[in-house]
Amino acid sequence: MNYRRLLKYSVASIVLACAAPQAWAQGKQVTITHSSATNSHWGVAALEFEKVVEALSKNKYNVVVQRLDNEREAVESVQLGSQECALGSTGPVGNFVPDIRVLDVPFLFRDYAHARGVLDSEVGDKLLEKFKARGMIGMVWMENGFRHLTTGKKEVQSPSDVRGMKIRTMENQVHMEAWKAAGVLPTPMAFSELPSALQQGTVDGQENPIPVILAGNFDQLQKYLYLTSHVYSPGVLVCGLDFWNGLSAEDKKIFQDAAKASVKANRSRVEEDERSGVQELRRRGMEVREVTNREAYQEAMKTAVANFEKQFGADVLKTLREWRPK
Ligand code: EAX
Fold first, then answer.
1. Of all protein residues, whose CA lies closest to atom 6 belonging to ligand 1?
2. How far away, in angstroms, is 102 Cα from ligand 1 center?
3. Cys staple from 206: which of 37, 145, 168, 231, with CB 3.0 to 4.6 Å?
4. For the residues 269-295, what does the mean pLDDT come to?
5. Nearest atom within ligand 1 for CA of residue 191
6. How far is the CA of 170 from the centre of ligand 1 (A)?
């Protein structure tokens, strides 16, 4: 392009820029990441957060939703302030806020009502408070769902069959300990590394909730799905403390309202996936095995539970297990 044409184009772009000021008048950018497809229990939650923040703030904020499959990195960058917020499973979050690890104990919650009840009670509120000391605001509890085991080639009939198997776990000490007690070789890795590990057969299996298996198309990577429901996998929406402290009281309320709306979207999508997901995975060709011997899995993880009782307090675990709504 010669000089004259370049000049013409530059002038034209300046004129355009002046004629379309709205394109430059975007709000303050707030980035939130999540680790799944847009059409998933995380994706819809992030979109809801975006929608509500932008509507309530009248576009003072421009929420940018991005996908970041490495949930540990997401939390790290929230902590460092290089992104404002993140939502996702608590898988790696216990490495940042150790108090929340208690929620990762297998066979702690009976069902969704139980887990949500605890998270929405003062127990959950107190745990969210713990994020502050780690440079984050725990905005709201979300959920990933009850986790189920899947395997590739080898079929598992009972928990004794998992002995010696390499099972990918989240980077979560509690989960690793539990699987180790069951005789598994727990192979912790970030979610972002999981698909290739399954493809290459570096691990024999993995475990995740139905919404994650569905959205991640794990039916293409794993043959068997066992409905073990061995552990509830909570989620959390976190924002950086510095970002938060820079907000006015009015804007904090907007973000809190958006976070609450986001939980609703997340939970109702989990419910929907729980209703139709297993059937859909069967349709896609997965061999689904109902698990009638869940207690056997619990039994297999028992030596770890004794350890958890020491670590978190037997009384604390008992209170959580026996929790009933007031
Ligand atoms: O949040 O790492 C995991 O297995 C998580 O369940 C997944 O990232 C979805």
1. 208
2. 18
3. 168
4. 97
5. 2
6. 7
Confidence (pLDDT) at 26: 84
Alpha-carbon gap, residue 94 to 292, rounded angstroms: 31
pTM: 0.92
Q: Among candidates 256, 156, 246, 151, which has minimal Cα distance to 204?
A: 151
Q: Output the residue whose Cα is nearest ligand 1's atom 1.
A: 89
3-state secondary structure of 252: helix
For 36-51, write each residue's pLDDT tens digit.
999 999 999 999 999 9
Residue whose CA is at the smallest distance from ligand 1 atom 7: 191
**Residue 294 burial (CB < 10 Å; 0-12/13-18/19+)?**
middle
Euclidean distance between CA atoms 4 and 225, whole angstroms: 66
pLDDT tens digits, 160-174: 999 999 999 999 999
The mean per-residue pLDDT over the stretch 53-59 comes to: 98
pLDDT at residue number 16: 47
List the domains of the chain with CATH numbers.
Answer: 3-321 (3.40.190.170)
Which ligand 1 atom is the nearest neighbour of the CA of 144?
1
